[in-house]
Amino acid sequence: ETWYCTAYVSSICYQLQEVITDSVAKAVRQVAESEGAILDKTQLLMVLITVLALVGSALGISNLITASVMERSQEIGLLKAIGAHDRAISALLLVEMVIVAILGGAVGFGVGYGFAQIIGFTVFNSSIALSPLVIPLVVVLVVVVTLAGSIPAIRTVLRLDPAEVLHGR
Predict the structure, then answer these.
(1) What phi-psi label fits residue 27: left (phi over 0), alpha (psi between -120 and 50 degrees) or beta?
(2) 150 touches 97 (CB < 8 A)
(3) How many CA atoms lie within 13 A of 24 on its CB side?
(4) 162, 70 in Cβ contact below 8 A?
(5) What is the distance between the alpha carbons of residues 136 and 140, in angstroms, rounded to a whole number?
(6) DSSP H/E element including 69
(7) Which of 160, 163, 167 is nearest to 69 (CA)?
(8) Residues 77-86: pLDDT tens digits?
(9) Is residue 95 part of a domain?
(10) Could you tell me if 71 and 127 are in contact, meaning their C-beta atoms sit under 8 angstroms apart?
(11) What is the extent of the structural domain holding 152?
(12) Could you give the number of structural domains in the chain?
């Protein structure tokens, strides 16, 4: 038997393969590094998908809120006609939007967590642990995305002329 005096993992793997002829020796560190690189790329992909989902959500929220504001334009015009300030009307609409968004976010969180558990048991045969940071992060993201999506609708509300809206123009 020939033993080499190098401490490199690759040479030790080679020596093991020479001694145990029907075996395959791989350096665990190299495997771990390659798996780590794959995990890093997967995490980057997940972040990209999350950002795209948040942008899509903001656009969808913007569209829905603008449609809702246009449907309620006579109500908003009447509020302006009787003396309500733009700030009060904006605050009223924002509070309504945030309440609905938090309820929707809670339902989405519950459904997403349920699917994560199902996938965790199906694929990995274990449950997915819930980090304590997830819930506050979800609440903050829901509020931020809702407020970002609300900006065009609020700007539309601020431009409404009560006389034109109440006349039906």
Answers:
(1) beta
(2) yes
(3) 1
(4) no
(5) 6
(6) helix 28-71
(7) 160
(8) 899 999 999 9
(9) yes
(10) no
(11) 54-167
(12) 1
Q: Are 58 and 149 in contact (CB under 8 A)?
A: yes
Please check whether residue 77 lies inside any domain of the structure: yes
- Report the distance separating Cα 73 and Cα 168, nearest Å: 10
Distance from the Cα of residue 69 to its chain's centroid: 26
Is the residue at 16 inside a domain? no
Of 152, 166, 142, 165, nearest to 54 by C-alpha is 142
Q: Please indicate, yes or no, if residue 25 is contained in any of the structural domains.
A: no
Q: Hey, what are 151's tokens?
A: 């900006």
Read off the amino acid at residue 44.
L
Residue with tokens 């968004």: 101
pTM (whole model) above 0.85: no
Q: How far apart, in whole angstroms, are the C-alpha atoms of residue 151 and residue 97?
A: 11
Cβ atoms of residues 69 and 153 within 8 Å: yes
86 neighbors 158 (Cβ within 8 angstroms): yes
Per-residue pLDDT tens for 122-160? 888 888 888 888 889 888 888 888 888 888 888 888 888
Range with the poorest average pLDDT among 31-35, 47-51, 107-111, 135-139: 31-35
